[in-house]
């Protein structure tokens, strides 16, 4: 399988719960490397732009309001099949439906406060990585 890059966000609920390290350990345990990272408190504009694909969805307002409610930890992950592997580690969007042992099953409270974001395809990964890490401040090894 090819080496890929994906964009991951530890959302405000998980940052507030102080589980950044526990989530990073899961990435590392699955062979995913953190090759760029930054903490940020997103503005409404940034969160709205990032989730622009969901603009017409009924949950958009709540999503932006949640994503701007506190700091987030944003990282680019690299590894074999990184996009699907990260989605697998995350579990289903609704933590009640997420498989046992996934990040969302273990750390998320609700479909809104669901601990993590992960790119869902190669095209979105490229756009999302460029959105948060413009230029090449990425440390591959
Ligand atoms: P994400 O983009 O955050 O990684 O999550 P996802 O791919 O699993 O889910 P997506 O369909 O892209 O939705 C983005 C976020 O919007 C919230 N959502 N709420 N109330 C609802 O029906 C609903 N559906 C989605 C979730 O917080 C989801 O992570
Ligand atoms: Mg998504």
TrEMBL record:
Organism this protein belongs to: Zoogloea ramigera
The cellular location(s) given in this protein's UniProt record come to:
Cytoplasm
Q: Does the keyword Hydrolase apply?
A: no
Q: Which residues form the active site?
A: 117 (pros-phosphohistidine intermediate)
Which cofactors?
Mg(2+)
Q: Give the family per the record.
A: Belongs to the NDK family.
GO function term, MF aspect, one? ATP binding
Q: What does this protein do?
A: Major role in the synthesis of nucleoside triphosphates other than ATP. The ATP gamma phosphate is transferred to the NDP beta phosphate via a ping-pong mechanism, using a phosphorylated active-site intermediate.
Q: Supply the EC number(s).
A: 2.7.4.6
Span of domain Nucleoside diphosphate kinase-like: 3-140
Q: Which SMART domains match?
A: NDK (SM00562)
Family annotation (InterPro entries): NDK-like_dom (IPR034907), NDK-like_dom_sf (IPR036850), Nucleoside_diP_kinase (IPR001564)
Subunit structure of this chain's protein: Homotetramer.
Q: Kindly state which keywords UniProt assigns to this record, in alphabetical order.
A: ATP-binding, Cytoplasm, Kinase, Magnesium, Metal-binding, Nucleotide metabolism, Nucleotide-binding, Phosphoprotein, Transferase
Q: Which residues bind ATP?
A: 11, 59, 87, 93, 104, 114
How is this protein named in the record? Nucleoside diphosphate kinase
Among the record's GO biological process terms, what is one? GTP biosynthetic process
